[in-house]
Write the C-alpha cells for this entry.
Amino acid sequence: MKTDVVIIGGGPSGLLLSQLLNRAGVATIVLERTGRARVLSRIRAGVLEQGTVRMLQEAGVGERMAREGHPHEGCIFSDDDLMVRIDFKELTGKTVMVYGQTEVTTDLYAAQDAIGATILHEVADVVICDADSDAPFVTFTHEGVQKRIDCAYVAGCDGFHGVSRKTIPQDRRREFERVYPFGWLGILSRTPPAHEELIYANSANGFALASMRNEMLSRYYVQVPLTDKVEEWSDDRFWERLTSCLPGDVVKTLVTGPSIEKSIAPLRSFVSEPLRWGRLFLVGDAAHIVPPTGAKGLNLAVSDVFYLHEALIAAVKQGDTRGIDGYAARALARIWKAMRFSWSMTTMLHHFEGEDGFAGQMRKATLLHLSQSETARRDLAENYIGLPY
Ligand code: APR
Ligand code: PHB
C-alpha cells in the first residue's frame, strides 16, 4: 500500500489529524491497535479550549458539539467553604466547552467514515521503518496478514504506550517526568451536576473535582493514595469523601446515586523530546502526558495537530518543508507552558503524603490570594481557556 501520511493511533489526535489532512487533499491511512468500540469506551475528560472548538469546527465536526455541548463562562475553586469564581468571560472574553472526549472521538469517526477514510482496526506488530530516510514505510499485521505501507511521512498518535516514541533511539531521547504520589478516583453517575460550573475543591480531606457531561450525567473525582484499589471504594464511601471535600452550600443540594463507571487514574507530568525523528512526528500523549487537573490532555493533543496538519499539507502539496522543520519547536513551546499550568494546578490543590503544615498553609494562601486578586484570577483564566497557538 502507498499513501502520503501513515497515522499510528486512532484516538482523538490521530483521527483529527487524518480528517484535517483528508479535507486538504492529503491521503492518510490510520492504523489502530484496538477495535473502534474499545477506543470509544474510554472515559476521558471533557473540557475543550476555544482553540480545540475551532479546530473541531474546521474539521467539520462542530455541529453536534454546538448542539449538545455546554459553553461554560467560569469555574469555581474552593477551599473548604471559601468559593472563588473564575469568570473566564469577564477576565478573557472567552469561554470553554464542556463536551466529553468520547463524543469528540465519536464525531471524528463519523466524519472519517463519511469521507471514506482508511482506518484499519485491530492491527498488530506495527513497526515504523526508515523514518530517518526519505522513504519511510510501516509494516504491521492485519487480519492475520503481514502488510506494508510506503509513505512520505509518519505521525505517531499512538499515546503513551505506543510504538512511535520508542522508534526514536533511546540515546537520542530526553524524557522529563514528575510522578505525583496520588491518583484520581473518578465516578460517572446519572445524577444532576452538583453545580452549574466545575468545582475544583481543596479541603482538609484532600482534593475533589465536581464536573459533568450533561444535565443528568455527572463526573466526580476524589484524590486517593496510589495504593488504593477501586474495590476498596463503595459508592457510599465515595460520596462520603466527596461531600467532605465540597463546600457546605454545594453539599446541601448534592444528589447522589449509583456509579455507572468507577476507575482510578494515576497523575503524571511527562514530556519526551524530540518530537521529530526524520519523517516521524510525535503528537499528543505519544510525546507528553499532563495530570488531568488543568484539563489540558486533549487540548494539548489538538494544538500539536494544529501545528502539524498545516506543516504536512505544505510539505505534501507544495514540497515546502519549513513547517515540518519548525513543528517541534512550535509545539514544544506551548506544551511546556501547559505542563507548567497543569503542574501548578496539581501542586496548588492536592495534599502530598507526609507534607508539613506549611504546605497546607501555602495552598490556603494561594486560594485566598485568588479570591482577592483579579490579576491572579486572570492569569489562571488565560491558561485554563487555552493559551494562543
Ligand atoms: N499501533 C496502533 N495503535 C496504537 C498502538 C500501536 N502500537 N499503540 C497505541 N495505539 C492506539 C491506542 O489504542 C489509542 O486508541 O493509539 C491510540 C492513542 O490514543 P490516546 O491515548 O487517546 O492519545 P491521543 O489521541 O494523543 O489523545 C490524547 O487522550 O489520553 C487522553 O488525556 C489524553 O485527552 C488526551 C488524549
Ligand atoms: C472531566 O470532566 O472529566 C474533567 C474536567 C476537568 C478536569 C479533569 C476532568 O480538569
